[in-house]
Amino acid sequence: MKYKVLEADSDYLLHKSYEVRQLVFVNEQGVSESIVHEDPDRSAHYFVAIDVEVNALGTARWRKTSEGVKLERFAVLPAYRNKGLGGDLLKSILGDVKSKFGSGVLVYLNAQLEAMTLYAHQGFLPIGPRFIEADITHQRMAQTL
């Protein structure tokens, strides 16, 4: 499987990112579209994994918050899970965050339980109790770059 991870810096790539989120979060997991597609001020930095035919296979985003940098909306199409694509998305985003903020920045996310191992492999540690968000159990995880 050949793919590349790109910053979704065009309307076309941003639309590709939204397609993956729609399929995974709304269609597969039953999450409300209003939660999945919110970003009114376009403050987030989106990334998308695409194959050679420019089909979107996975996506994620990051945004600066008062707490640090929050990673969000990690979604990989079912056929491409557990094949390294999610890890490559995560590495690309962490590289981008580090290039913009340097060392010492807190990076955190709310992981669905099934994805905790992915984040743990990149140095994220669980913080606090598990909680429900959009009817799905999550665990906050964080690390300092």
Describe the structure.
- The chain has 145 residues and is α+β, with helices and mostly antiparallel strands.
- The chain is 30% helix and 34% strand.
- The protein has four helices and eight strands.
- The protein has helices spanning 11-28, 33-36, 85-101, 116-120; strands at residues 3-7, 45-51, 56-64, 69-76, 106-112, 125-126, 131-133, 136-144.
- Strands 1, 2, 3, 4, 5, 6, 7 and 8 form an eight-stranded mixed β-sheet that branches.
- The radius of gyration is 14 Å and the shape is globular.
Secondary structure layout plus pairing:
Blueprint: E1 3-7, H1 11-28, H2 33-36, E2 45-51, E3 56-64, E4 69-76, H3 85-101, E5 106-112, H4 116-120, E6 125-126, E7 131-133, E8 136-144
How would you sum up the major sheet? 8 strands, mixed
Overall geometry comes to: globular
Number of helices: 4
| Radius of gyration from the alpha-carbon trace, in angstroms | 14 Å
Order of helices and strands: EHHEEEHEHEEE
Intertermini distance:
30 Å
Structural class: alpha+beta
| Residues in helices, as a percent range | 25-40%
Report the sheet-strand fraction.
25-35%
- What oligomeric state do the depicted chains represent? single chain
Residue stretches low in confidence (pLDDT < 50, at least 5 long) are: none
